[in-house]
Amino acid sequence: METTAIHYTSVLLVRAAPETVAEIEALARAEASERPLLLFFHGDGVLAATRSGSAWSALAGAEGVRALLCAAALQRRAVAAPIEGFEVASLVRFWDALAASAAGADFLVRIDEGGDARTWQERLELILAGASLDLDLRVLFEASAWWDLRGKPESWAAWQQLFDHGLARVGVLAGPSGRAEAVAPAEWVGESALEDWREGVDARAEIQA
């Protein structure tokens, strides 16, 4: 456990599954990021980080880099801990570090694709952890991801708490046609409204879930 607060110049959320293009892209971003750097592995990202011979292990041991593994994601995937070079932590710790890194910014969570029930559960947990700290959160869906969620009744029932309790502002990006669709209780975000959605959000405060 940290005994003194560390202000990280870069805070990255890594959710990419192992041996995917997304993982290669995430690793490149991490290697190019300014130090001190906090890496937080969430979802299938914990499998990428902890597999044998992972390039993440070398990065986790580099100067100015701290690597955290989501406790809940590890438990769901039955990954044994501790793992050399990595610490186990909660999602709240990720948001604490991100909020300090992007002080004064609003936070934007982008969801660009669908997923299975576990993926939707972990995305929701990520957002709820940020909401528990009273952060100004916006969640922006690609239209295909939104309809994927709406097509999973059990997942959708859990996500409705965001609307019931006003925990985040939720929007759906215009699809290829650009025509407004009935996406209530979310907001329809056409091209003309996208700038408003990004107001107050800088690159450090935007994450991909």
Terminal CA distance:
26 Å
Count of the domains: 2
CATH topology description of the largest domain: Hypothetical Protein Ychn, Chain: A
Q: In this structure, how is the largest beta sheet organized?
A: 5 strands, parallel
Number of extended strands: 9
Architecture overview:
With 209 residues, the chain is an alpha/beta fold. It has 2 domains: 1-101, DsrEFH-like (Hypothetical Protein Ychn, Chain: A, 3-Layer(aba) Sandwich), CATH 3.40.1260; 104-209, Hypothetical Protein Ychn, Chain: A. Helix content is 38%, strand content 19%. It has helices spanning 21-32, 45-50, 55-60, 71-76, 91-101, 117-131, 143-150, 153-159, 161-164, 194-198, and strands at 10-14, 37-41, 65-70, 87-89, 107-111, 137-141, 169-173, 187-189, 206-208. Strand 1 (10-14), helix 1 (21-32) and strand 2 (37-41) form a beta-alpha-beta unit. Helix 5 packs across helix 6 (117-131) and helix 6 (117-131) packs parallel to helix 8. The two termini are 26 Å apart.
Short summary:
InterPro entries: DsrEFH-like, Sulphur_relay_DsrE/F-like. Helices cover 38% and strands 19% of the residues. It is of the alpha/beta class and 209 residues long.
Write the layout of secondary structure elements.
Layout: E1 10-14, H1 21-32, E2 37-41, H2 45-50, H3 55-60, E3 65-70, H4 71-76, E4 87-89, H5 91-101, E5 107-111, H6 117-131, E6 137-141, H7 143-150, H8 153-159, H9 161-164, E7 169-173, E8 187-189, H10 194-198, E9 206-208
